[in-house]
Design goal:
Structural class: mainly beta
Number of strands: 10
Order of helices and strands: HEEEEEEEHEEE
Low-confidence stretches: 1-24
Mean pLDDT: 90
């Protein structure tokens, strides 16, 4: 993955050099950076996410290739979950654990792109890794013996407090022009699949699997 990121950085640097030489637009390689906020429609609640995609535009902006990543951290997702500790263990006087969840993805993205009048449409397909888990919250993070909270989480959830798995996502995004050249705003819908992500709280692995996601974003890039 590091080699891929370095390759994209080198390519984007080449774009700047090309622009400086005033090469005709039809021969240019473009670039894009698209930060986003989003929501994930999980089983019994809506989770918040933040992320970004970035990379290159090819073939007169008909194809985007880059990196896509997003995550839903605990601070922006106050929803809590309860589960009984493994093997009836007691933690601070109770066998019931109160947890929050976090999750993140990163992968390669390929997005065919076309225009309908002045609206740009792309169809991003991403493949990579997704990972995250469940963790103690509030005062429960102050462990009774001074050990790291991650050690207790591992013990209380039988070594399965977090996991990772393969991730794939399909989406459709619409980019609308703004009054500022090189900046667009837009929205998208996405369908996310994660395989092999199983945790103590969610042994079925379905917590993030086969879920819909929506995004709002600002796009910075060349035309």
């Amino acid at each position: 993955m590091k080699k891929i990121v370095l390759t994209l950085i080198v390519a984007l640097s080449a774009v700047s050099t090309t622009n400086a030489q005033d090469v005709p637009k039809s021969n240019q390689i473009g670039w894009f950076i698209t930060p986003e906020v989003g929501v994930m429609f999980l089983e019994d609640h809506v989770g918040n996410s933040v992320g970004a995609s970035f990379g290159m535009k090819l073939w007169k902006n008909r194809l985007k290739i880059g990196i896509n990543a997003y995550g839903r951290s605990g601070p922006i997702n106050p929803k809590t979950f309860t589960v009984e500790a493994y093997n009836g263990q007691i933690y601070k006087g109770s066998s019931t654990l109160t947890l929050r969840a976090d999750y993140g993805t990163i992968g390669l993205m390929i997005a065919p792109t076309f225009k309908v009048k002045n609206v740009e449409i792309d169809v991003p397909v991403s493949y990579g890794m997704g990972g995250g888990g469940f963790y103690l919250v509030g005062d429960d993070r102050n462990t009774p013996d001074g050990a790291r909270v991650s050690e207790w989480e591992n013990k209380l959830m039988n070594g399965e407090d977090a996991a990772s798995g393969s991730w794939m996502e399909f989406g459709v995004r619409g980019f609308f022009p703004s009054k500022i050249n090189g900046i667009q705003v837009g929205a998208g819908v996405h369908y996310s699949i994660v395989q092999g992500w199983k945790t103590y709280y969610d042994p079925s692995g379905e917590f993030y699997n086969n879920k819909l996601r929506a995004s709002l974003f600002v796009n910075f890039g060349s035309y």
